[in-house]
Structure formats: C-alpha cells, structure tokens
Design brief:
The structure is a homodimer. Chain A is elongated and about 70 Å long. Chain A has helices at about 10-15, 25-35, 50-60, 80-85, 95-105, 110-115, 150-160, 180-195, 225-240, and strands at about 5-10, 35-45, 65-70, 90-95, 120, 125, 135-140, 140-145, 170-175, 200-205, 215-225, 250-255. Helix content of chain A is about 35%, strand content about 25%. The relative contact order of chain A is 0.14. In chain A, a hairpin with an 8-residue loop joins strand 6 and strand 7 (about 135-140). Chain A has about 260 residues and is α/β, with parallel strands linked by helices.
Chain lengths: ~260, ~260
C-alpha cells in the first residue's frame, strides 16, 4: 500500500521571499525514490497557531508529515512548542538531547538559549543531527527537521531507514522542439489509454539557443509500472515523430536512487 | 489596513521534485514591496478535488489568493475547471480570450486543445499574457496565473496596478561570524523591547571561506515602521559588538522596489 506524505515548511523567511525553499524539492525526490507519494506542501510563518493548525490538518490527512525549520536556539524557533501543542502533550528537556548538547559546548557556553534546543515534546524520539548536534524529533507520523539545508539533509538521511517503502515511481522525460498546443490532443489520447501512468506536459521558453531548442515542451510519463511507463513513453515518441519532431529522452529517473 | 495573501501552486511537477518552484519567491517579493502580507503557500498536485479544497480554504482565510500553474492546453491543465467548481460557476469559452487566441494562430492551427485555453469561469476578468497570449484570469479575490516563470512574471506585472497597497515592510539584514547560540539571549531581549519588528535569526554554514565567514548568522529586522526597524538593527549591531563580533549590514531592502 503506497503511503502518502506532506511537507510543512515553517519560517517567515520563505514567506518574505528572503530564502528560496530548496528543502521541499530535496525531500520530494528522496520520497519519490522510496515510493512514498508526496501529496501536499504548505508553508507557514513563525506563528504558533498557524503551525498548529497546518500540522493538525496535514497529519490528519496524509500518512506522513515532514516539517522543516524553527528548531534552533532563538526566540523565533517555536516549532517544538507548536508540535507539542498540536499533539496536546507536554514539552521539556529531553535527557539525551540535553546531554548531547551539553557535551558539545565548552564549560559556560551551554546557555539557556542553547538548552532550548533540548526541549522536545513528550513521547517523541530524537532524530540525530550529525552536522551540528541539536536533534530533530519524530512523534507519531510527524518528522521534525531543521531548516538549514545541510542539516535537514543529514537528518533526512537518518530517517530514511525507518520510512516505509513502496514501489518507486519511474519517470521518463521526453523533450521536443514543438509548441505544447500541437501535442495536446495526441497526448490526451495516450493518457486516456494509459490510466496508470501520469503524463505531464511542461512547455519551456529558453533565452539562448546553444544547440537546444528555444521553445519546446518536456513530456513526462510517470508511474509505478515500468512496462506501462515505457509503453507510454514510446507512444509519446511515436506521436512526436508523426508531427515531424525529433524527440529526445533527456532524463530517466532510476528508482532507488536519490537523484 | 494591511491585506493578507496566499499562494496556491498547482502541479505534479513540484511535488515530484522535478521542478523547483521559484514563482512563490518572486510573488513573495513583489507582494512585500506592495505592502501585502504573504501568509501561506500551498502546493497541490493536478487533482481537481484537492485544488478545489485548497482554493476554498485559502480564499476564505486570506484577502487575496494567487495561483500558478495548470492553465495550458494539455489534459493535465485543470486549474480553470477547478476554480469554476470552487466558486460554483459555469465555465466556457470567453469571447475575448477566444478571439485573441484565434488571432495568434495560423489557419488550421487553432485546434481544440488550444481552444481549451479560452475556457474561463463565468464572471472572471482576463489577465493579459504579453508572452504567449493565453490569458490568466481574476475572479473575486483569486488571481489565476500560468506556471511557466516567464509568463507568470509577465501576468503578475499586469496585475500589480490593480492590487491594494499597504505600508511596505523594511528589512535590514546584519551578518556576523558568530554561532547563533551566542546571540540568542541578547536577540530575545531586543525582540521583547521591539514588539512591532519581527527579528529572524538564520544560521549558515558555508563550504568555502573566500573572505566571508564559514559559520555565522544572519539577523533580519523586518517591520513597517522605519524608525523602529533602524532602532532594532542598531541594537542588534551593538549587541554583536559587545560579543566581540564585527557586524555587517549585507542587504537593505528598500520599500517600493521589487528586489
């Protein structure tokens, strides 16, 4: 049974446009390789009530929820408290987290702000942080990770062995220098014949034409049945050739990799 | 009265990790310059029921909603139908959209798929598309735009003159080569004294140290009251100097620009 997932990105810096969220794309690709269906992403600011509401909506709707951001030492890091409130559990220093953090700092440096990073909702299990020690945590179907990409990625690697596996999706991308509107009808017919494959159509306009078309479309056939995906891809290529185009397979995502 | 806003990003390609959503960041910065508060972003796939549910939640909660994606000619472009369903209105060819699209194509090229791009929910006003003709549309507090970044940006420029204005936020960013945990307590005290300024703290780890610190923190003071923001920034700089650090202002967002 394929599991569904959502990501909750927490932080004013995403909503202000200061920071480009790249964590979601990384998590998306890792989940895809594991055969987990990412179904929704939400971004909310550093506002406890909004974090609580979004987390409760997502954890009630999807099998797994991954959060990023808001677990540092500063006043704007309120994710752990919000998660505790969402679950209706207490929060306090986690003995193991406290010990790890205490051991990390020189005497006198383990101040109250840094101790905040040991505050973990009751009943949660720690997620190791091999980069900067301060842990994430896991409670029920929710995985709480850091927002700094290097730290988030390391935490996700720690989580991966615990996550459920499904049949990974296979995606074949075919590019051609034709306008999207010329392929739409043929594509719809292929889609109708292949119910278990999702066909996506993504037009592009490129500034420079260094050997590659300046206008064209990328067509993606994605699904869990390798034969059906290949049959769909071949049908798309045949359709493009019938239109006089020269289709190119530009990327093939191999299941089981994190690429 | 400051208006609130949300973005609804529509497309399987974001949830699969195939495409990095950069539209949200661009919209965020434009809204910030207009003095509109972006409060939430959601990403959903090409599933009508999910688009409808997300759109109805967002348009009921926030003053303005901006959607991106799903308005092209192919079978996976279902945004216009989903918006019509969310509002409970009919959808059909919009005469002006139909004429514009018909004029764009050579005789025989204006096929059924391309005609799909003229299907607009009843009661909606068109948003011009100076890049590739096929329009977006605006219905009540919802603005429906393309997903291709070049087209989305052009549509947003068309919309900007119609949008409400508020007092834009001013953000001052101060960087220092100190770990976040050493500034957290001083920062919390400054935040406590400045209720109308939001202080964000963003640690970073950089691979290479070409003249810039490999580990440090960026502190952002953001608010609508220029004096309060400047006072907060000066307090942060003084606090950093007291810690023996050399604070640097690295970016000052000037209100009214789209930078």
């Amino acid at each position: 049974m394929t599991k569904s997932a959502a990501i909750l990105v927490i932080g004013d810096e995403i909503l202000s446009g200061r920071t480009q969220d790249t964590n979601s794309g990384h998590i998306a690709r890792v989940l895809g390789a594991l055969g987990i269906d990412l179904r929704e992403i939400r971004v909310v600011g550093d506002v406890e009530a909004e974090i609580v509401a979004a987390l409760n909506a997502l954890r009630g709707t999807w099998d797994l929820v991954f959060t990023t951001g808001g677990i540092g030492p500063t006043h704007d890091d309120i994710t752990a408290d919000a998660v505790a409130r969402a679950f209706g559990v207490d929060i306090g220093y986690h003995p193991e987290a406290y010990r790890m953090l205490e051991a990390r700092y020189q005497p006198g440096e383990f101040n109250d702000a840094r101790k905040r990073m040991a505050r973990i909702p009751h009943g949660a299990a720690l997620i190791a942080n091999p980069v900067s020690v301060a842990p994430g945590f896991h409670i029920a179907n929710v995985y709480v990770m850091a927002g700094v990409p290097m730290v988030m990625r390391a935490m996700l690697e720690e989580i991966v062995p615990q996550l459920p596996r499904g049949a990974p999706s296979i995606a074949v991308t075919i590019e051609a220098a034709v306008p999207e509107g010329t392929v739409a009808e043929g594509l719809a017919a292929i889609q109708k014949a292949e119910k278990d494959v999702a066909i996506g159509s993504y037009p592009f306009y490129r500034d420079s034409g260094q050997g590659s078309p300046a206008l064209g479309v990328q067509l993606v056939a994605r699904g869990r049945d390798a034969d059906a995906v290949e049959r769909t891809a071949a049908a798309i290529e045949a359709m493009l050739r019938d239109l006089g185009a020269a289709p190119q397979r530009i990327k093939q995502v191999v299941p089981g990799t994190h690429a």
